[in-house]
Amino acid sequence: MSKLPTIKDLVNDVALYEQQDELSFLLNQEPPEKWVKTHPYIRSHRYVPIDKVEYLLRSIFKNNYKIEITNQGTSFNGVWVTTRLHYKDLITNEWKYHDGIGACELQTKKGSSPANLNDINNGALSMAFPIAKTLSLKDAADNLGRIFGSDLNRKDIIPVKTPESLLENSLEALQELFKNIDQTKMPPDDIINIERIIDQKETTSYRKAIVLIKKHSK
Q1: How far is CA 212 from the centre of its chain?
Q2: Which of 32, 133, 75, 39 has its CA nearest to residue 141?
Q3: Which residues is 82 bridged to in the sheet?
Q4: How far apart are the first and last CA of the chain?
């Protein structure tokens, strides 16, 4: 029986594959516990507030996302809004989207039924639609990954595995490679830069240093 190819064998650009791997790892981290709130009315329901969701969108996608309201309406005693969250894939630069839906009950006079239009509070619609829009956006953002709060109320979830590309580009890997290379084959400036990266723990430069070492080790 012939050996099946690995995913890396099927992807021409290994660097592209590693970037996708690392982006997926980021998006599927659990949100910081201090961000997470418990719903005041829904028992044990945990969520990430909209200000944190918007902060994540701005921080991860910069200006490369936009929100489209695709539909809205009324149903029973409330209103609903559907939203489409457009975003540019950070790796492929292609525009993609996720859809969401949110609903909110109309506020009425105490003890009254929303079915009685005369008992609906003044301004109930103007408050309900923005809330429904917010819930719709959060519902759409959930599809991006766990960091947006998608799994906060799920009991059985698969743990996120650290991608191979991150392990390969760790400080330990850099130190091991640098220790074993014949430094006489490397320009002095490269050696100085790599020593600085290791000493100052410049995490964003680990990959660059590892690629440089491997280049001189050939």
Answers
A1: 30
A2: 133
A3: 71, 101
A4: 34
The tokens of 188 are what? 């002095």
What CA–CA distance (Å, rounded) separates 66 from 209? 36
Question: Tokens 């990430």 — which residue?
Answer: 48
Q: How far apart are CA 175 and CA 195, in angstroms?
A: 9
Domain boundaries, the chain: 31-148, 164-216
Helix or strand or coil: residue 71?
strand
What contacts 166, CB < 8 A, 6 or more positions away? 21, 22, 25
In this model, does residue 2 exceed pLDDT 60? no
Q: Helix (H, G, I), strand (E, B), or coil: what is residue 218? A: coil
Q: Characterize the bridge pairing of strands 78-88 and 95-105.
A: antiparallel
CA distance 80 to 169: 46
CATH of domain 31-148: 3.30.390.80
Q: What is the pLDDT of residues 48-91, one digit of tens each?
A: 999 999 999 999 999 999 999 999 998 878 899 999 999 999 88
Q: At what angle do helices 206-216 and 171-180 cross, to 10 degrees?
A: 20
Is the pTM higher than 0.90?
A: no
Is the pLDDT score of 118 beyond 80? no
**Cβ–Cβ under 8 Å, residues 93 and 148:** no
